[in-house]
Amino acid sequence: MNRYLLKISILVLLIGCIEPFDFTTEIETTDTLLVAEATLTNEVKKQKVKLSRTISLSQDSIINFDPEVRFVPSVRFDSIEPSFVEYESGAMVEIAENSGMVHTFSEITPGVYLSDSEFAAVENIGYSLNIITSNGEIYESKEMSFSGQSRIDELYAERIINDFGEDGIAIYADSSDPTNQSNNFRYTYEEAYKIIAPKWTPFEFEILNDGNVPLEVPAVRLVPRAKEEQVCYNTVASSEIQLKNTVNLEISSSQRNIVRFINRNNPIMSHRYSILVKQYLESQEAYDYYESLNSFASSENVFSQVQPGFLEGNIRSVSGDSNVLGFFDVVAVDQKRLFFNYVDYFPGEDLPPYFQEEFNCDRIFSPQLGDPERDGPSPPPPLHCPEKLIPQIQRESIEYFGDNSIPPEICEGPYLVTARICGDCTIFGSNVVPDFWEE
Q: Could you report the per-residue pLDDT of 84-106, keeping only the tens digit for each?
């Protein structure tokens, strides 16, 4: 939900009034709002609360932020955090029951608070969220409870052509509330997938002489890789809000509800893919909030004629009149996990393109080493060869692929190389197999 709350915060700062305004003078560029994300479930676990702040308009890079993460050599693809997230640290967080019991929370990473002990929400018990920030601001939520049970009856995948004519895999959930207490469902998912580097080899370069030693030529040697870089795994949480209402049906059930569509050219399902779907049974108040949040987040133009203003949740400031973004949700939840392989639905068909196509993994090149006895000839001036091998090794932008032909051609060296993105899967994921993974 964080991405949506972030979009809402932009909207709040940009269109907080109904009357037309002068963008340059009527917005207080230093104001920030507390963003609270908290969903208390009926699972026995350490419950989580996330706190952050909206960014002020004085940091205008947020308006021009490019959400597409590009490849950066030596940086894990999934480790790049948006620079505009301002975590709220040092807060006191607790969830209180209407029976008088209080569950305290501790900050485990900036802005992320876990309950000190495991507990689960109980049906028809009232809960409230209480927050005291490090600067003394006090916030509290409305008392919330849940009634009913959430159940995913079946989770399955089918190959389809969607309404946009795209070929791919649809993930469906058949869902119900066996107690028939609620008609409102919300879905989130977490997907995991296997990554296999297409140009991996078991060897890597070790620099023996970088060429800075007088009277010595640059030298490298091949050594076995120090760590697993052929097969990796990545796990990504959904950022979408998916809602389903069955109010017009006689029973609280939903069949063939699409939770996720994956285009057949998406590399996340090139080998083995898994999705964990969670279904939340929502109160009408929570459902209305998430529906409004969806409308805010899908707004194409924040300066449109219809200016929605501030989206109010169920959390308020006790110590002042500050607005706060977010909703304290208390829900029943059920979850199921699904695995499948690409060949299960696309037998004999080509794999999707590898991640970030601008790094063509079919391109193999051979930069000069800097050793005249092992390199091919250089062109006559004023022409010159591309960057040599060792600087690219030092920058961690390439991987060894093979030995070059003898003798090397013009501007070629003794080794064939590929872009690191093609030979090292840790660019996109972790080489640690997830605990839940099944082959």
A: 568 999 999 999 999 999 999 99
